């Protein structure tokens, strides 16, 4: 029996019902490929992504519609089956409903609409639906080189269809303080004794506004947040070292190399950089894509996003992050998306593509 829901909602329900937890995206990818073939769309599926296109890159620029098929594990606290999508009023509940299968479904049907209408495009629209975005094993950086020339991109993430024109990066750093291991009873015995825990504590209180002198016009200052602590041999032994993990949410005002140098210069302990791959992004000041998007949706506002996405692997393009759903619902129990936003996104993506490739 045919679904009574619009096609973008029916596809979203089907995708949510496929538990594509990061590392297990193949069933969802195969389903998306089969739907594209059913509609006669040009589709390629490989170990990096599902790529669906309309138009001809020989006739003009390529606009990428980029999102991801993987979801985080459901976790605890659900009042519904996380992989049995339920519609209540304007909300569809299920893991990945907003982050980011709503964007995938809307982008898919925008491409299908362009193909069905035979819209004359001076260029190509390419959907790139990658895997592993929620993990360290994101495949978008592998998919992009296989996609041919790319000129601009709409990054499909939950933004309530507002325009994210800047996105924080993520840099991970370990702070390590070294001290002397001895019996705690002799901690006050004098000499050149150092307690690694108190040495680390003196460094941690320096972190507020440590790199606040550079203020990005959209994202503000870079934040440096300790999230984990590790120290101790026994309750009556001073430790030889103490470690803190720092979560650094960067902005385009600093490169990650500059941040590492600043921390090393301003702190009196060992600074160990463990990850720099998720760099900050921003939309070019003269963005033609943003101008087209604002003409299509003049009521939308611009803002800076605190969360990372595959945009960092497309940062060399004219790009904005925009999609249906509310970011604060991502990764939560009873994750949900507003159906009206999914339907609006389908039309929005198609109209932006038509405008950009007119």
Descriptive account of the structure:
It contains eight helices and 18 strands. With 358 residues, it is an alpha+beta fold. It has two domains: 7-167 and 280-356, Aminopeptidase, CATH 3.40.630.10; 169-278, Alpha-Beta Plaits (2-Layer Sandwich). The two termini are 39 Å apart. The model has no long low-confidence stretch (mean pLDDT 96).
Set down the secondary structure blueprint.
Elements: H1 7-16, H2 26-38, E1 42-45, E2 49-55, E3 62-68, E4 86-88, E5 91-93, H3 97-117, E6 124-130, H4 140-143, E7 152-155, E8 163-167, E9 169-178, E10 182-183, H5 196-204, E11 223-231, E12 237-238, E13 241-250, H6 256-266, E14 270-278, E15 281-282, H7 288-296, E16 302-305, E17 318-321, E18 336-338, H8 339-356
CATH class of the largest domain: Alpha Beta
Q: What is the N-to-C succession of helices and strands?
A: HHEEEEEHEHEEEEHEEEHEEHEEEH
Overall residue-averaged pLDDT value: 96
CATH fold category name of the largest domain: Aminopeptidase
The CATH superfamily name of the largest domain is: Zn peptidases
* Assembly category: single chain
Radius of gyration, whole Å: 24 Å
Strand order of the largest sheet: 1-2-6-3-7-17
- Share of residues in helices: 25-40%
DSSP strand count: 18
Please report the distance between the alpha carbons of the first and last residues: 39 Å
* Second-tier CATH architecture of the largest domain: 3-Layer(aba) Sandwich
**Major β-sheet, in short?**
6 strands, mixed
- Broad shape: elongated
Structural class estimated from helices and strands: alpha+beta
Beta fraction: 25-35%
């Amino acid at each position: 029996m045919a679904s009574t829901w619009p096609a973008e909602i029916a596809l979203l329900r089907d995708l949510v019902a496929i538990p594509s937890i990061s590392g297990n995206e193949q069933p969802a990818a195969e389903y998306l490929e089969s739907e594209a073939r059913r509609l006669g769309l040009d589709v390629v599926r490989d170990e990096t992504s599902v790529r669906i296109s309309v138009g001809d890159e020989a006739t003009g620029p390529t606009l990428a519609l980029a999102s991801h098929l993987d979801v985080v594990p459901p976790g605890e606290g659900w009042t519904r089956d996380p992989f049995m999508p339920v519609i209540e009023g304007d909300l569809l509940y299920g893991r990945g409903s907003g982050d980011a299968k709503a964007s995938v479904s809307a982008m898919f049907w925008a491409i299908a609409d362009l193909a069905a209408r035979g819209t004359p495009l001076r260029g190509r629209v390419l959907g790139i639906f990658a895997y592993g975005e929620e993990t360290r094993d994101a495949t978008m950086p592998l998919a992009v080189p296989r996609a041919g020339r790319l000129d601009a991109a709409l990054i499909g993430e939950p933004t309530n269809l507002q325009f994210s024109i800047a996105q924080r990066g993520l840099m991970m750093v370990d702070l390590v303080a070294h001290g002397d291991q001895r019996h705690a009873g002799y901690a006050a015995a004098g000499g050149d004794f150092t307690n690694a825990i108190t040495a680390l504590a003196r460094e941690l209180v320096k972190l507020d506004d440590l790199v606040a002198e550079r203020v990005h016009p959209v994202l503000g200052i870079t934040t440096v947040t300790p999230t984990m602590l590790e120290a101790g041999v026994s309750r009556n032994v001073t430790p030889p070292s103490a470690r803190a993990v720092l979560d650094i949410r960067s902005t385009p005002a600093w490169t990650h190399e500059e941040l590492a140098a600043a921390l090393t210069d301003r702190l009196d302990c060992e600074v160990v950089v463990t990850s720099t791959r998720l760099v900050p992004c921003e939309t070019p000041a003269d963005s033609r894509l943003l101008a087209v998007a604002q003409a299509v949706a003049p009521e939308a506002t611009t803002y800076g996003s605190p969360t990372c996405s595959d945009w960092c692997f497309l940062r060399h393009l004219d790009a904005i992050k925009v999609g249906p759903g509310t970011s604060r619902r991502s990764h939560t129990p009873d994750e949900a998306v507003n159906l009206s936003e999914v339907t609006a996104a389908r039309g929005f993506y198609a109209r932006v593509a038509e405008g950009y490739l007119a």
